[in-house]
Amino acid sequence: MYSKEELLDYLAFIWAKSRTFVKSLTPEKAQGRFIGDYRNFSLLELAIYNTRHVRHHAAQLNLLLRQGTARVPGWASLPKQGLED
To answer: Residue 41 and residue 73: Cα distance in Å, rounded?
Structure first.
């Protein structure tokens, strides 16, 4: 189990690393390749893939938060129907 402080520190680290990567992504660099055991992506494709991956985990966390309550985190919006009950 991670403490709130540890999670916030990690979030700040990842946010800074992501911003540095995006700011440095020139058209030439975006065409560079990431070749792993299971993937062969351009760096631009890798950035998009990672964004989708993070969104997936954010959705999982949102689901866990909603299981016990209809309260919605401040960063999420409540659908017009479904969770008002």
So the answer is: 33
d(CA 61, CA 23): 28
Rounded CA-CA distance 70/82 in Å is 10
pLDDT digits 0-9 by tens, 19-60? 898 899 899 998 999 898 988 999 999 889 888 998 898 888
| Model-wide pTM > 0.90 | no
Domain ranges of the chain: 17-67
How far is 40 from 46, CA to CA, in rounded Å? 9
Sequential DSSP letters for 15-60: HHHHHHHHHT--HHHHT-EEE-SS-EEEHHHHHHHHHHHHHHHHHH
